[in-house]
TrEMBL record:
Descriptive protein name: Cytochrome c oxidase assembly factor COX14
Database matches in InterPro entries: COX14
UniProt keyword list: Membrane, Mitochondrion, Transmembrane, Transmembrane helix
Upper classification of the organism: Eukaryota, Metazoa, Chordata, Craniata, Vertebrata
Record's keyword annotation contains Membrane: yes
Organism: Sarcophilus harrisii
Length: 98
């Protein structure tokens, strides 16, 4: 319990120190970018990337929806042909002679 209180007081003193000094600023995205070695993206670049990613996903969904629709139409016409052929085989021979 004493260790917890000690850590809590250390944290409180650090935060009060950070609030008083304006020269120390912790910017986590910049630190993360520096650690990973990549450049920071500007907000415009991030928005452009998000727009392009969203547009690409919508295009893929449209193509996939077209594929599903055409596959269903193909199965429908195949099934209709099979039903038509089965119905013709069940007709009596007298009707077919006329």
């Amino acid at each position: 319990m004493a260790l917890f209180i000690t850590r809590l007081l250390e944290l409180a003193s650090i935060t009060s120190l950070l609030k008083r000094t304006t020269s120390i600023r912790i910017d986590f995205p910049v630190i993360l970018a520096n650690l990973t070695g990549c450049k920071m993206m500007s907000p415009k670049q991030l928005a452009d990337f998000g727009y392009k990613a969203f547009s690409a996903s919508m295009m893929l969904l449209t193509v996939y929806g077209g594929f599903l629709c055409s596959a269903r139409a193909y199965r429908y016409f195949q099934h209709r042909g099979v039903l038509r052929q089965a119905a013709e085989e069940q007709k009596p021979q007298s009707i077919l002679q006329d």
